[in-house]
Structures are given as structure tokens and as C-alpha cells.
Design a protein that fits this description.
This protein has three helices and six strands, in the order E-E-H-H-E-E-E-E-H. The chain is an alpha+beta fold. The protein starts with 12 loop residues before the first strand and ends in a 7-residue tail after the last helix.
Length: 155
């Protein structure tokens, strides 16, 4: 192992105005029937959103650590269309729908090949260190507008 390059975790990529994030269903993601447990779809979507924001140049960790604020989920809706199963290869699509001064609405869906498994929407509110809504950093809002327009979100 010494001197050997180890593989990195999966990263998503931007295609047009959408972020595509790969996920494989493991045993721990399923219930007794080998179907993905309902709450794990939310975990997959959270990973995809976090990856999308990181790749767009949003430093959530650094902003939070410096007291600049953080995101909190203010609203969430999820519709289950078809189940995912053990060993399925999934792709989570994320797209900015609404960009406001202190929040964003992100539409997300989970796909197995050409079959859509879920359809969802998440509102993330940007809060101050004291938990009050506050404006998102201007550079983040600019990146979100570029992403929503199908452009590369990175400056």
C-alpha cells in the first residue's frame, strides 16, 4: 500500500443544468426484502446535493467554521415511484429550481437506467450562526444562477 495511489470516492459531474451523482445500492441500504429502505433515498439525495455544491465552488464547511452560516433543510417533498434493490446502480439528478436571497430550491430525482425511481424537491435555507435566515454569499448565488442556466457553475 505504501506509495500506492488509492481510489477516490465517487464524484458527480455537471451535464447542462443538472448534476449527476452515481450511487450503488449496498446491503446496508436495504431492508429485509433487499429493497432500499425509504429513508436511504434521502441519504442518497443529500450526498448528491453536497457533491453538487462542493463542485460548484461552495465551501459549506469553511463558511460554517468561520461563523458565516450554514444550510438547514426547511422543506422537503419526496415521491416514491419504483423501488431500488440490492446492487442497483443509481444516478441522482439535481437541478436548481429557485434561487432566493436566503434559500434555494433544488429538484432531485433518482434513476436506475431509464427508470425514474423518485421525484423530490428540497428547500435549503441559509442561516446565521444564531439560526436566523440570512443572505447567501453572493458568489454562491452567482454559481447557482450559472448552474441553472446550464453553464459551468465554477467561476
Amino acid at each position: 500500500m505504501a506509495g500506492e495511489t488509492l481510489p477516490l470516492p465517487a464524484n458527480g459531474h455537471f451535464r447542462g443544468g443538472s448534476h449527476h451523482f452515481p450511487v450503488r445500492v449496498y446491503f446496508e441500504d436495504t431492508d429485509l426484502s433487499a429493497v432500499v429502505y425509504h429513508a436511504n433515498y434521502l441519504r442518497f439525495m443529500e450526498r448528491a446535493r453536497s457533491d453538487m455544491l462542493r463542485q460548484a465552488g461552495v465551501d459549506q464547511r469553511g463558511t460554517h467554521a468561520s461563523g458565516g452560516g450554514y444550510y438547514a433543510i426547511a422543506d422537503l417533498s419526496l415521491r416514491y415511484l419504483r423501488p431500488a434493490s440490492l446492487d442497483d446502480d443509481l444516478v441522482i439528478l439535481s437541478r436548481m429550481r429557485t434561487i432566493r436571497a436566503a434559500s434555494v430550491v433544488i429538484d432531485q430525482s433518482i434513476w436506475r437506467g431509464t427508470d425514474q425511481l423518485t421525484d423530490g424537491s428540497v428547500t435549503a435555507a441559509f442561516l446565521s450562526a444564531t439560526g436566523r435566515p440570512q443572505r447567501q454569499p453572493a458568489s454562491w448565488i452567482s454559481a447557482y444562477h450559472r448552474l441553472a442556466s446550464g453553464e459551468d457553475p465554477r467561476p
